[in-house]
Each structure stands twice: as C-alpha cells, then as structure tokens.
Amino acid sequence: MMLFQSFLLAHTLAVMKLKSEASKLYLSYLWWIIEPLLFVAVFYVVFEVLLGRGGENFIVFLMCGKIPFLWLSKTVNSGANSLVQGKNLMGQRNFPKQVFPFAQVQENLYKQWVVFAILLLILMGFEFMPTMSWWLLPLLIFVNYLLIVLITLVAAILVAYIPDMRMIVSMGTVFLMFSSGIFWDVRDIASIETQNLLLSINPLAFLIDAYRQILMYGNTPDMQHLLIIALVSSIGLVAMYKLYDLQSFKIARRLLS
What we know:
Elements: H1 2-23, H2 31-50, H3 58-79, H4 82-85, H5 99-125, H6 137-161, H7 165-179, H8 192-201, H9 203-215, H10 223-246, H11 248-256
C-alpha cells in the first residue's frame, strides 16, 4: 500500500512540475521533442559534417543511441538533487523520501514516451520499417526504466549525505556518454573479449546496442543479458526502497541541519 501511495505522490509531483515547466516556455510542451532533436543535430554536425566519421544511416544510428542516453543522463542528473530540492517537506518525518527522486524519474518518463514515438516515426521516414523484433521494444524500454530508477535513487541519497557527489554524478554521465557506444558501434571493437567485457560491465552500452539491433537491424538482442539487467535492477530497487525507509529520519536531519 505504501508503495502505491508513493507512486501516486510521485506521479502528482511529476505532473505538477511538467505543467509548471511548460507554462514558463513559449514553445511549452514542444520542447519535449525539440530538445533531444537539437542534441542529436549538434552531434551529427560534429561527427558527420565536421569530422566525417559518420557513415551510412549515421543520423538514425546516432538517434538510437543518443535518445536513450539523454533519458538516463537528464533523469539521473536532475534526480541526484531531488532530495536537496525537496528538503522543505523533510520536516514531515513520515513523508516517504524516495518520492522525490521517483517524481523526477516519472517526469522524464512522461516526456520520453513522446520522444520515442517521434523516434519511431523518423525511423520509418528513413525506411526502417517495423519488424517482428519491434515487439521487444516495450520490454527493452521497461528494463531501461528500471535501471534509470535504480541509478537515480542511488545518486539522490549519495548527494543528500555528500553534496560533492553531484559533481561525481555529473562526470559519471559524461563518462557514460563516451563509453557506451553512442557515437560508435560497440560491435566494431576488434577484440571479442573486450567487446563482451564492455557489454557486461556497462549495462547502458548493452541497452543502446539492443535498441539498434531491434530498430535498425531487426535482430533480437541477447535476452538472457537483458533479463539479468532487469533482475539486478529489480533487486537493487527493493534494497534502495528499504534503505530509504530506514534512513528517512537521518536524511531529513542531514538536509535540514
């Protein structure tokens, strides 16, 4: 019951923030689409136009990597500060503290559904037609979501106790951007051992490759690997939820001191 109530609170906070944010911008909700497309456009110009390192269908290749990465990076970086930003409610000892990072996750999730819809339309515009593997996309997005929630919860509680951790979190997402195969293909790594190691220790690299395998090549990704990420993320989420409950009073005292 408490988990359901936490979800409802997070949903309400997320919707309120979305409406508040949209009301402050001239283009309102259109920025949900414009912002990720601008990011893709910038990196396309750098790697394809200026450096000439793109290749065939590079714009689609880039979008399939950059859009999932932006979902993770924006959520984690904003969610890392969510407990600090919500400290005005920390005086209520029984208020579930995990609601704050979870609300940030939900806010970005609601934006991401629109972005994914546009991505699919663009793919079809480039003649990447739906295949049977596209049915796996909801599962892939769900696993991606579980991983994002877990990382965000961890980042938020670390920043609550050690404010300097927000810099580490920010640098960590930059490191992921360059090490997860967003601008290059993981499968181009000559050494199979190195390739497998990267996919094993960096779940984002595996997920980005899985998006491309499904959407661009019509292949089925390694389902065992995908389910392992889902299982580990789920176990981690349960552990973090319990940790937030156990540390609820200490988090409030730390942020209000």
